[in-house]
């Protein structure tokens, strides 16, 4: 066996043993796992935490992705994602222009595949069935891939690279619509939302539909129901000027406004998460050190329930956030305190901080996914 093969075998062996411990512990002691990425300049790694049934987290360890991060903030959303069935975990390696796919199974084993992103500086990734799409913000483009769900291998989707609306647009996030018919990308610099149709072949439409955002600096987004799109507007970081907008996405990719910008009364709302029932939404307001809570109506109408629904203090810098699949807990990646904060979600959407939060994360940590 060659030296390269030995190194790869050793890496896979260490990866499998780590993952077995992670998922076995989760099954025995808790409800699931929370993942983030180190985004380290000299090597990216997935950092995992056991999620107990009461929402508290216990560190489980880390495993390398085989790629590199940037060691700094990415200005992105969905840098770490899980597939709908929790079988696949994907993470971008923005510093090495690739992404990594982890496969989990009932025995807790994980396989590793690292794939060039077909562009520069991948910051966001999306998966729907066997289709994977990556947002390469450094090359202002998206690129598609096909996942073999039997073997875990990933192949570039021929002729899938598409440009965004222009150059230096500040692409922040990519995601499929819930039905998989469209791909949505937010562009911070141009104040645009770019939408591609997804053909039966898996290819994106040759020309995207481009819409002006209702607010400045559209950043993170989430779907609250099948076709209602909620988008944060960071307002260029202007003090207390950020907002959330609600849109209706048609199957043909047409975007109409459900409700214009609803103020958070906080600074730089960048990330957003929605409860599974679609009744409550939360934004992370990084410079303000706060989390805002919204009520979401049946038609996508928004009401600010609490501009400061949660805060971890003046040194807090909340970035990525995620809700568990039962809608009981909100997890917030805090780059200021370098930890993950956990909150219980009441039936009215109010938040209560849990007794402890796990610290010790690198300042560069990026992305958050919960299973």
UniProtKB/TrEMBL annotation:
Origin superkingdom: Bacteria
Keyword field contains Calcium: no
rRNA processing keyword on record: no
Annotated signal sequence range: 1-24
Single biological process term from Gene Ontology: glucose metabolic process
Pfam family, one: Lactonase
InterPro entries: Cycloisomerase_2 (IPR050282), Lactonase_7-beta_prop (IPR019405), N2O_reductase_N (IPR011045), WD40/YVTN_repeat-like_dom_sf (IPR015943)
Keywords noted in UniProt: Carbohydrate metabolism, Glucose metabolism, Signal
Molecular function GO labels: 6-phosphogluconolactonase activity
Positions of transmembrane segments: none
Family: Belongs to the cycloisomerase 2 family.
Descriptive protein name: 3-carboxymuconate cyclase
């Amino acid at each position: 066996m060659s030296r390269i093969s030995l190194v790869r075998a050793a890496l896979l062996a260490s990866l499998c043993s780590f993952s077995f411990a992670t998922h076995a512990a989760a099954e025995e002691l808790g409800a699931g796992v929370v993942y983030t990425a180190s985004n380290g300049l000299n090597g990216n790694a997935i950092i995992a935490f056991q999620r107990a049934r009461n929402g508290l987290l216990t560190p489980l360890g880390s495993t390398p992705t085989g790629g590199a991060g940037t060691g700094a903030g990415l200005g992105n959303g969905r840098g770490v994602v899980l597939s709908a069935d929790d079988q696949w975990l994907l993470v971008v390696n923005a510093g090495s222009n690739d992404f990594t796919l982890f496969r989990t199974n009932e025995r807790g084993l994980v396989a590793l595949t690292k794939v060039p992103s077909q562009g520069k500086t991948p910051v966001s990734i999306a998966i729907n069935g066997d289709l994977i799409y990556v947002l390469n913000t450094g090359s202002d483009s998206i690129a598609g891939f096909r996942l073999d769900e039997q073997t875990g291998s990933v192949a570039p989707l021929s002729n899938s690279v598409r440009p965004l609306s222009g150059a230096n647009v500040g692409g922040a996030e990519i995601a499929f619509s819930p039905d998989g018919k469209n791909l949505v990308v937010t562009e911070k610099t141009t104040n645009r939302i770019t939408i591609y149709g997804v053909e039966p072949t898996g290819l994106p439409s040759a020309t995207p539909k481009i819409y002006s955002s209702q607010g400045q600096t559209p950043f993170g987004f989430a779907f609250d129901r099948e076709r209602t799109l909620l988008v944060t507007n960071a307002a260029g970081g202007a003090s207390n000027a950020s907002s959330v907008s609600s849109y209706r996405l048609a199957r043909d990719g047409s975007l109409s406004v459900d409700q214009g910008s609803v103020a958070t009364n906080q600074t730089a709302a960048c990330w957003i998460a929605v409860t599974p029932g679609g009744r409550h939404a939360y934004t992370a307001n990084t410079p303000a050190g706060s989390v805002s809570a919204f009520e979401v109506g049946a038609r996508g109408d928004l009401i600010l329930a609490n501009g400061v629904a949660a805060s971890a203090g003046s040194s807090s810098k909340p970035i990525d956030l995620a809700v568990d699949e039962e809608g009981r807990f909100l997890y917030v990646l805090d780059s200021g305190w370098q930890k993950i904060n956990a909150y219980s979600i009441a039936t009215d959407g109010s938040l209560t901080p849990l007794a402890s939060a796990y610290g010790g994360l690198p300042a560069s940590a990026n992305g958050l996914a919960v299973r």
